[in-house]
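Shape is hard to put into words, and the shape of a protein is harder than most. The fold becomes a row of whole numbers, each drawn from a learned catalogue of backbone shapes. The outcome of that step, for a single protein, is printed below.
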Amino acid sequence: MKIEKPYVVQREWMYGYFDDLKGFDTWEEAFQWMCDTFDASNGDDDYRIKGPDNTAWRYHAYRLMRNYCPVCHKAVRNMDFAWTYDCHGIQMRLVCGKCRDEIMSKGYDGEYYTAADETFDEDW
């Protein structure tokens, strides 16, 4: 069955093989329906949205799953998490995009520190 809409949500049933599920007029509608369908499923299917010019956006199951932000405790999709960085550019933690903007507003996550602040045992 050929779907006559510009954006088609497809489910991967075997590596590299996709079944057309439903067509949409906009990418946003297709993405929302795909996320809702994933949430209602057993959570192990990969999906993709195929665009009008045969462009495809692929979403693996682990990126569509929801986890909780450690700061605001809201359920957020894994693909919407972002890293925060300390004052030396070292990755600190994964938080949702809204919390990352608030945390990184001063330029880094946590307190400013130097090498003198790091205490090591003599035998280390």
